[in-house]
Specification:
Length: about 375
């Protein structure tokens, strides 16, 4: 090949990358020129998320609690910070819903509302067995907007959820995820089981407790209450009390300060005692005179002539629902109202018994 042709090929090879780079630069310029403004652009999911946060976040509050402690040496009383969490506005009259464990043991409660300042609050009612509590602002501001309530029975795994709260004191923080599972079970502060709990991968950290879990319509479908994490920080497994349970409990806390339950009028043996004696059910220790169980003819335990314990009735079922532990008994009773008649199945001296009992109100 002649020197002339070699020189031409080298020149063409050198020009080719320059030509491609020029074409690429031109294409990039065209793409940027035709792209929409980021400030005005949003995907449908982004728009939904930002809309929900802007509407719901003003109704999400911070709850801080403190306890009064007397100094053993000076006898002066000091205010000791106890805990912090989240909550949300339940009514425009100043009622706030949060977790029981956020306010447990507090002597003083303060609620911080976005852009409106801090307000003293008083405890209205508590349900430790459901980890729920209601507070009332002492001097509520005007224009409070409660969050709308959804229906947790409509949830399914994979549906989008949003959590708003104050993790680690960082107010009005938003996390987004999905419903990871339904019908989970967690322990309450009173060691009762809370059933039907929502599991989500939306990040829930210390300080989120008591805040709302929202659906894609901005409705409350749960109250964030706990996480599962070896480190104490979010590990993608959070739990929320379903709003349908909240809708049953909160009106009772407002009206009575506690969950109003019907009673049989009995005292039960604890689960350790039951296991020790190999009892398959819950043993009645005492039946209170004049109350439904006594009127139906149920009996409790007694002592024989030599001081030995003689078992009375052992409850095995309430309206066909098996009862094996104290918690089973309470969970079954919570399904009924005062005045309902239930069928109690029991064993007496290993012989099956059945009692129709009309439930009364706790005194």
């Amino acid at each position: 090949m002649s020197k002339r042709w070699k020189a031409l090929l080298i020149t063409l090879a050198a020009l080719t990358p320059l030509t491609n780079a020029a074409e690429t630069d031109t294409a990039s310029t065209v793409d940027l020129a035709t792209a929409p403004s980021y400030l005005s652009f949003a995907t449908d999911d982004e728009r939904n998320t930002t809309d929900i946060f802007s509407k719901a976040s003003p109704a999400v509050v911070s709850v801080t609690s403190s306890a009064l402690r007397r100094n053993l040496f000076s006898l002066n009383v000091a205010e000791i910070p106890k805990g912090a969490g989240s909550g949300f506005i339940w009514s425009d009259s100043g009622l706030i819903v949060t977790n029981f464990h956020v306010v447990a043991g507090a002597d003083k409660l303060t609620v911080s509302i976005q852009d409106q300042g801090d307000y003293a609050a008083q405890l209205v009612g508590i349900a430790p067995e459901r980890d729920l509590a209601v507070l009332r602002l002492e001097k509520p501001p005007e224009g409070l907007q409660p969050l709308p309530l959804g229906d947790s029975s409509e949830l399914s795994v994979g549906r989008k959820v949003l959590a708003i709260g104050n993790p680690f004191g960082l107010d009005s923080s938003l996390t987004v995820g999905v419903v990871s599972a339904l019908d989970r079970e967690i322990a309450s502060p009173s060691n009762r089981r809370i059933q039907g709990v929502i599991q989500t991968d939306a990040a829930i950290n210390p300080g989120n407790s008591g805040g709302p879990l929202l659906n894609s319509l901005g409705q409350v479908i749960g109250v964030n209450t706990a996480i599962f994490s070896p480190s104490g920080a979010s590990a993608g497994i959070g739990f929320a009390i379903p709003v349908n349970m909240v809708k049953e409990v909160i009106p009772q806390l407002i009206a009575y300060g506690k969950i109003l339950r019907p009673i049989l009028g009995i005292e039960l043996a604890n689960d350790q005692w039951t296991r020790r004696y190999g009892v398959k059910g819950v043993a009645i220790v005492r039946v209170f005179r004049g109350l439904p169980a006594a009127q139906a003819g149920m009996i409790g335990a007694s002592r024989g002539p030599r001081g030995d314990i003689r078992l009375g009735d052992i409850i095995t079922h309430i309206d066909d629902q098996p009862v094996r532990t104290h918690d089973d008994y309470l969970s079954a009773m919570e399904q009924f109202k005062v005045g309902d008649t239930v069928t109690i199945r029991a064993l007496r001296n290993n012989q099956p018994q059945s009692f129709d009992v009309t439930l009364s109100e706790a005194g």
